[in-house]
Amino acid sequence: MVKAGYDKLGSRYRTYYEQAVPQRYTNWLTAFAQLLSPGTRVLELGCADGIPTARYLSQHVNYLGVDISPVQIEHARVNVPMANFAVADMATLRFPDHSFGGVIALYSIIHLPVAEQPALVNAIYQWLKPEGYFLCILGADKWTGTEADWIEPGTLMYWSHTDAATYTYWFKEAGFTVIDSHFVDEGNGGHTFFLLKK
């Protein structure tokens, strides 16, 4: 469902978010990049079309973006030709331990069924080098469901997330230190920002 939805939207996904998302992306990415040494290997889970995250981070680090949507990856390779991209399902990714100095996942992990998310959190911890950083935007409250006309009529999309306290527990159980955690207000609802360190 997630793959089909992003494939269907294509570049219209980015057009929508350029109108809807405020300056916070720039603030998040700037702060994240400042934590990393130039050339650090960084993985983005759910990179979509590469804007803004890949475009910004690839100027500072050795960037790899993965996304389940071949259409979004095709756009990303055009939008950010200096970065590396791959079509992949984050739930089945495999990397050697200590492969990355940083991992970033903005609103992407919550496309996985919540039951699969703790295993991914543990995998991310293993992929990170000691002292590596993980920045993610996750749910604030428990909810799993779909939207039938997401962004445009006929686009079906799925989300699944637990509450911020449960995510915090999972992170600490995996071994992460929580550097920052706060609610991201988004009109009638919101999500949770996490910055974590291995």
From TrEMBL:
Signal sequence interval, chain numbering: none
One example of a Gene Ontology biological process annotation: methylation
Methyltransferase domain: from which residue to which, for each copy? Answer: 42-132
GO molecular function list: methyltransferase activity
What keywords would UniProt list here?
Answer: Methyltransferase, Transferase
UniProt xrefs under PANTHER family = TRANS-ACONITATE 2-METHYLTRANSFERASE, TRANS-ACONITATE 2-METHYLTRANSFERASE-RELATED
Q: What is the name listed in the Swiss-Prot or TrEMBL entry for this protein? A: Class I SAM-dependent methyltransferase
